[in-house]
Design brief:
There is one protein chain. The chain is an alpha+beta fold. The chain folds into three domains: 146 residues, no CATH class; 58 residues, no CATH class; 211 residues, Nucleotidyltransferase, domain 5, CATH 3.30.420. The chain is built from 14 helices and 13 strands. The strands form four sheets. A five-stranded mixed beta sheet has the order 9-8-7-10-11. Strand 7 and strand 8 form a beta hairpin. Helix 9 packs antiparallel against helix 10. It is globular, with a radius of gyration of 28 Å.
Length: 433
């Protein structure tokens, strides 16, 4: 019922939480519970499954359209770029299918007008008409999708295993169904299960995610990386990724600072202000930062093809040292603290696990202050982002790439381990000059 109700064009931008909250606010859940004789959790998970399937349906439709448009020789590059841009933004795609113009956010509207300006009126109409035809042709319809009517999600509080029996909640409060297992259950009992009704074989199946497929890439080298602010990732190979990260985060911090200053002024005048705008902006910025970080990491893995990544165990927080002894300036601390704590490290480890790449943490002390070739201490840092330095023996070097090489070499350093105090690390490095 949910799938049939929400699979249309009007719900292309559907959101599970909003729809669930609307149902609860309107007390519609109780009507479903009474009508179908089910519990509130069953209604919620049925809605969750339906909306997940609907979102996947639209995503698959968009992928099909992209392939067809790319293979069509009658569609020029400008029209192709315009169609791809619409498919990327569900709200814009929905407005095209409904023949309605909508007010887009300024950032999206600016890009939309730039891409649209490259098309003539005939090309613009042709692109929209072509997109509507392809959407109607390849969109899945309820009568063609029967697989969604035979499964149900149960969380770990709604089932348990006991004495070779699978027990799960029924539609009646405090009553459970008991089903004998045809084989022993030896997997974890945490997480969601899918209860599948196989009508042809007249049986119930339990589906659970046990492991995911790990993508394999040709791996050639051990790679040391240095995490930075102006440049996101510097590699021991000499390449850098995410070079505009400092500019992105500076704009976001300045924008947040202005909004926060206005809030403080209003509060000082005794006027209460809502924190909703500030909170929503933080969420959008976090999502944007994650996409920038993911792109840089994927780009690095695709080009470097590392067998193992050696990284520094470093957390950018001002609490590591007392404020009076902190070497970061106020502006730098503001930028670093606005960076979602550990986001780069989390995404790096997640993507490494996805591709089966080993990652190792090493001691980060003084990695960017000593030359990796002659062990001399660097001089003063200079350059636009203080990324350049000078060695008396080796000449001008990129301090970030030099740090990445030091990080890679520190993996096999017997004197400096992960927990060696930074003062002792300095003595060891000075003795090697």
């Amino acid at each position: 019922m949910f799938f049939n109700q929400f699979c249309g064009i009007n719900n292309l931008t559907i959101n599970f939480r909003k729809k669930r909250n609307n149902l609860r606010a309107a007390k519609t859940n109780k009507k479903y519970m009474e009508c179908f004789n089910v519990l509130d959790k069953h209604v919620t998970y049925a809605l969750f499954d339906s909306i997940s399937n609907i979102n996947a349906m639209w995503s698959n439709t968009a992928n099909k359209i992209r392939k067809i448009v790319s293979a069509n020789p009658n569609v020029n590059q400008a029209e192709q770029h315009f169609i791809f841009f619409i498919l990327k933004i569900p709200l814009l795609w929905q407005s095209v299918l409904r023949y309605r113009e909508i007010a887009l956010p300024k950032s999206i509207n600016k890009t939309y007008l730039q891409i649209k300006g490259l098309l003539s009126k005939e090309q613009f109409k042709h692109a929209l008409s072509y997109l509507r035809r392809l959407t109607r042709r390849y969109k899945a319809y309820p009568h063609k999708v029967s697989i969604h009517n035979r499964s149900m999600t149960y969380d770990e509080n709604m089932y348990r295993f006991k004495n070779d029996e699978f027990r799960f909640t029924s539609q009646i409060s405090r009553k459970v169904f008991r089903v004998s297992l045809t084989g022993p259950w030896h997997y974890s009992v945490k997480g969601n299960l899918q209860i599948i009704l196989d009508r042809l074989k007249r049986r119930i199946e339990i589906h659970k995610l046990i492991q995911t497929h790990v993508k394999s890439l040709p791996k050639t080298q051990v790679l040391g990386i240095d995490k930075g602010l102006a440049t996101l990732i510097s590699c021991s190979s000499g390449n850098e990724y995410g070079q505009n990260f400092g500019e992105i985060i500076t704009k976001q911090v300045n924008k947040l600072a202005k909004i926060n200053a206005k809030r403080n002024q209003m509060r000082a005048k005794g006027l209460l202000t809502s924190a909703k705008r500030y909170t929503n902006l933080r969420k959008r910025q976090k999502a944007h930062l994650q996409s920038v970080i993911d792109y840089a990491i994927y780009q690095m893995i695709e080009q470097e093809k590392p067998l193992e990544i050696v990284k520094e165990d470093q957390t950018f927080t001002k609490e590591r040292l007392p404020k009076t002894k902190n070497r970061f300036q106020r502006r730098s601390r503001l930028l670093l603290n606005s960076w979602v704590k550990g986001l780069l490290n989390e995404r790096l480890e997640y993507i490494c696990d996805k591709f089966g790449i080993v990652y190792t943490d090493v001691n980060p002390a003084y990695t960017s202050q000593y030359c990796p070739y002659c062990n001399r201490k660097f001089g003063i840092r200079y350059g636009k982002h203080h990324e350049l330095t000078y060695c008396k023996n080796c000449g001008q070097l990129n301090a970030n790439i030099a740090a990445a090489i030091n990080i890679k070499n520190r993996k096999n350093d017997e004197e400096i381990n992960l927990y060696t105090p930074y003062k002792k690390v300095k003595k060891i490095l000075d003795s090697r000059i």
